[in-house]
Predict the structure of RRP12 N-terminal HEAT domain-containing protein.
Amino acid sequence: MTILEQQCMPAAHDDEKKGIMVAVTYLLAIVFARIPTPILRHKFADIARPLGLTLETHQDQAPLVRSITSCLEYLLLAQDNATWTTDATCKKLFQVLLILSLDARPKVRRRSHEAVRRLLSRPPPPSLHHPATV
């Protein structure tokens, strides 16, 4: 995550750094699937902030947006019911995924649809319905 945070600095806008950003987020998307749930829960705020900032500043790059969508999916899947009901960041990140599901780019739209579907089909225990549906 520190490489991602370094690349988000204001001076990081040339083509080489954009390529690094895409590569780093792609690797993060692969790694996030294998990170244990307790770690994702414990470091939720520390992970969500740089991912959101990166997505906000580099929305024009479809590969980067798809990778961050995957990261957000795994991050949100790891959260428990208490976090979903008390932490506004979870709901904001879910709203970001919903907004991306209306994106004009087909691959970004498809990836965000998959993320939303997976999130809603796996509610955090013990609830029967996902807190984002309320």
